[in-house]
Amino acid sequence: MHQPPVLAAVPVVVRNDSPTHIESWEALRRAAGCSDFLYVADSKLCAREPMDHIDRRGGRFVCVMPRTRLEDGEFREWIQTHEPDWERVRDERNPHRRHSPRDRWWGLHAPLPSREAWPVGPRRAERATPGEPAAREPIARAGEELSALNAKLAGPRARRRKRAKLEQHIKGILGEHHR
Question: Is 55 part of a structural domain of the chain?
Fold first, then answer.
């Protein structure tokens, strides 16, 4: 006679993700040998226990605030009637693709902290696209580098350069920023 298979109950452990950030941060701290690095995390870090853990040990962190938080709703309401004073916090080109658009990040210090008393800084990210004023950035950067070179050459401790080497250096600057 055929017997039905016995099904074994497998316990399923449901776990809040925020403690895993403590474990991850501790592993990174051990690997780095210090705690002053910037830990960037998803919204699961946005809980009192992991943020306090990192802070008490001298760490720094940035995380996304979940949309379910009161602070998120307050900001969304505030931005409907206010013009934020965005501050550029990052502006760099892709090191792997020279002519790709720049990565730009803008931040804003919110007037009130989070419920855990952490500063809240809404941010926005953008990619400069060709055709925007950002497309002229290579020209501006080349101009800055040429101005710096000119100031260096006019300075009291300028090394004399041969004309051919100087022209080669200038062509290098212009070539580096050519699209």
Answer: yes
Tell me the H-state helices in 57-99.
Answer: 70-79
- Report field, pTM of the whole predicted structure over 0.85: no
Can you read off the two tokens belonging to residue 137? Answer: 């950035």
The whole-angstrom separation of Cα 83 and Cα 66 is: 23
**Within a domain: residue 70?**
no
- The count of structural domains within the chain is 3
Quickly state the pLDDT bin for 134 (edges 50, 70, 90).
low
* Full residue range of the structural domain in which residue 149 is found: 135-176
- The 3-state DSSP class for residue 38 equals strand
Asked, for residue 11, whether it belongs to a domain, the answer is: no
CA 18 – CA 48 distance, rounded (Å): 9
106 backbone dihedrals φ, ψ, rounded to 5° = -120, 145
